[in-house]
Amino acid sequence: MTACGLDFGTSNTTLGFVGPAGPRLAPLEGDADTLPSAIFFPRTGATLVGRAAMAAYVEGQQGRLMRSLKSVLGTSLIDETTPLGRQRLGFRAVIGEFLREVKARGEAAAGATLDKVVLGRPVHFVDGDPSGDARAQDALGDIASSIGFTDISFQFEPIAAGLDYERQVAGEELALIADIGGGTSDFSIVRIARGHADHTDRSSDILANEGVRIGGTDFDRQLSLSMVMPLLGHGSPLKRKGLSMPVGIYQDLATWSAINRLYDGRTVRSIRELEREAAHPGLVARLARAVEDERGHGLALDVEAAKINVAEAGETVLDLATIEAGLSVGIAHADLVEHTGLLAERIAARVGSCLTAAGLTADAIDALFLTGGSTRLSHVRAAIRACVPKARVIEGDTFGSVGTGLAIEAGRRYG
Predict the structure, then answer these.
(1) pLDDT, average across residues 323-340
(2) What are 289-318's pLDDT values in tens digits?
(3) Domain boundaries, the chain
(4) Distance of CA 257 to the CA centre of its chain
(5) How far is the C-alpha of 19 from the C-alpha of 3, rounded, in Å?
(6) H or E element: which one contains 77?
(7) How many whole angstroms separate alpha carbon 78 and alpha carbon 238?
(8) What long-range pairs does 129-133 form, CB within 8 A, spacing at least 24?
């Protein structure tokens, strides 16, 4: 057994392979077969990944947390460096260190060296930029090669999810596979049939692919900018008439891949200068404390948790005591829909494009297969379902369907 399927996700990562009992996902952290795509570089001691990385940060250990690593693929950040203490490390090396640990844990579970891999990829790493999309795939392939994979290929993530779903069907049907993940939303229309599972060439069964670079982290970002950042001065005026707080600082603080660049003395000094010029300096003082104490990642984690709580319970109170004692904000489902509804609409619009590309009407779709963490958001689900109202809805493994499908594909290509 030397082949595996690797789903390097914006929020979570899985690795799977085909064994005697069929495809399975490797336990990557304790008994969990999902590993949060996070890495923590402590001031002293060994690097941590996954839940352990986030726990170390939340517990107050000194060091640098990085999450949503996949989001730098397809951006200029992939060829830049980030400060880690007194040193700087390239983003390629950061991703490589994370995936090297994933590979090692997968090999421990498989009891063999894994040197062949099918990597999942979104339909579009970069919207509307084929050359940028190719560079992103090449970068991921180069990183995979650098950590010891010798045979590397790719499969669209929604196609992989479709391979997992295909194991459940008895006959033939047309399925719309919706993979709404942390960084991208991807759709494929696939002809599904159990008898096709062993076919080497499935190109005739793939009728259309569509995607957009919108995912769960964008919902987090928009919720943060709308509900949390105003408490830190976002949108508040300066003393000089007609001027307000610069938006760039808040956008960076609300964006996982950009938070780290705020953690330098120049940014803190700039915020303190803005505090003196602000019409509401108390709000900007909160921003200054958040950046000085490097609480940006903790704030992003809290916003993400609040989003999930609202999705599950309808409302929540986001405690911001790490910024200021007694500070909090209530968030209801109506707030989530108000501030992220346009994102849901933009995601659903890709379904229409996918149907058009396949030459099909909505009524032709037999099944809607949902996977990816952001399918838990009811307004996202509703927007997608409205595009194919007659299709029956199939719930996939929220975080594991893509990885399982990639394992199936790896077994077929390299078995």
Answers:
(1) 97
(2) 999 998 999 999 999 999 999 999 999 999
(3) 3-171+397-414
(4) 11
(5) 10
(6) none
(7) 35
(8) 129/74, 132/74, 133/74
Q: Which amino acid is at 272?
A: R
Evaluate whether 231 touches 287 at the Cβ level (below 8 Å): no
Residue length, the chain? Answer: 415
Q: Does domain 3-171+397-414 have CATH number 3.30.420.40?
A: yes
Tokens of 239: 């003393």
Place of tokens 């509804």: 341
Count of other CB atoms within 10 angstroms of residue 113: 11
Strand residues in 194-256 grouped as ranges (E): 206-212
SS3 content of the chain, % helix, strand, coil (to 5): 50, 25, 25
C-alpha to C-alpha distance for 375 and 396, rounded to whole angstroms: 10
Q: What is the pLDDT of residues 142-189, one digit of tens each?
A: 999 999 999 999 999 999 999 998 888 888 899 999 999 999 999 999
- Alpha-carbon distance of 163 to 404, in angstroms, equals 8
